[in-house]
UniProtKB/TrEMBL annotation:
The keyword GTP-binding does not apply. Keywords: Transferase. It comes from the Bacteria. Pfam families: HPTransfase (PF10090). One of its GO terms (molecular function) is transferase activity. This is Histidine phosphotransferase ChpT. The keyword tRNA processing does not apply. Residues 87-199 form the Histidine phosphotransferase ChpT C-terminal domain.
Length: 211
C-alpha cells in the first residue's frame, strides 16, 4: 500500500499526469459522441423510418455521453479555484442514472469547488462497487462535510479496497474498474479531507470532510 499522507513529489506528479490524461481522453471522446447524437436527432426530425435500431443507437449514445461527462469530472484535472454550478452536477447525475443501476438525489445548493465535486464523484464510483445491484444515493453537504447515503438491497464493500481507502491509502493490485480507489486518497489528502464509512444491512453512509 502507498500511504496517502506521505505522498511525495513523484506521486503528486503522477496523479497530476493521470488527471491530465483523463481530461484529454474524455475531451476527445465527447466531441464525436456529440456528433453521433446530433446525427441521430436529425434523422429522427427528418421523419426517416428508424425503428428500434435507431432508438437503441440514440439510447446508447446518450448513456455513453453521460458516462464520459461523469468521468471527465471525476478523473480529469480540477483547476485551482474552479467551481461547478448545482444545475450542472444535478443534470450530470440525472443523465448517469438513466444509463445505470443507481439513482442520485443532489441535495446541495449553489456552486461548489470543482476539487470537492471531483472527490464526491470518485466516492460515488467507490460506492458503486459496493452496491452491485444499484442504489438510491442522497448527496448532502452540511458544515463543510459531505454525506453520501446509499440505500440498496445488496451492500458489500470489499475490505481489500475500503480498509486502505478509509486510511487514505492506495490499495494494492487495483484493476482498471477499481482505479477510483487509487485516485481518491491523494485527492482527499490535497483537500485536507478525511473519509469515514458506516455500513448497515441496507444502508451505506460515506462521509468526506476536513480532518
Amino acid at each position: 500500500m502507498k500511504p496517502g499522507n506521505g505522498a511525495g513529489h513523484e506521486s503528486r506528479a503522477a496523479a497530476e499526469l493521470a488527471a491530465l490524461v483523463g481530461s484529454r481522453i474524455c475531451h476527445d471522446l465527447i466531441n464525436p459522441l456529440g456528433a453521433i447524437g446530433n446525427g441521430v436527432e436529425l434523422m429522427e426530425l427528418s421523419g426517416a423510418p428508424g425503428g428500434p435500431e435507431l432508438s437503441l443507437v440514440a439510447d446508447s449514445v446518450a448513456a455513453a455521453n453521460a458516462r464520459v461527462r461523469f468521468f471527465r469530472l471525476a478523473f480529469g484535472r480540477a483547476a485551482p479555484g474552479a467551481e461547478i454550478a448545482r444545475a450542472e452536477v444535478a443534470d450530470l447525475l440525472a443523465a448517469a442514472a438513466r444509463g445505470g443501476r443507481s439513482s442520485y438525489f443532489w441535495a446541495v445548493e449553489g456552486a461548489l469547488p470543482r476539487a470537492e465535486i471531483r472527490a464526491v464523484l470518485l466516492a460515488l464510483l467507490c460506492i458503486e462497487t459496493a452496491t452491485p445491484r444499484g442504489a438510491e444515493v442522497q448527496i448532502r453537504r452540511e458544515g463543510g462535510r459531505w454525506r453520501l447515503v446509499a440505500e440498496a438491497a445488496t451492500i458489500d464493500p470489499a475490505p481489500a479496497l475500503w480498509t486502505p481507502l478509509l486510511a487514505r491509502q492506495v490499495p494494492d493490485g487495483l484493476t482498471p474498474a477499481q482505479v477510483q480507489f487509487g485516485i481518491l486518497p491523494p485527492t482527499l489528502h490535497d483537500l485536507g479531507f478525511g473519509i469515514e464509512m458506516d455500513v448497515g444491512r441496507s444502508r451505506m453512509i460515506v462521509t468526506l470532510g476536513p480532518d
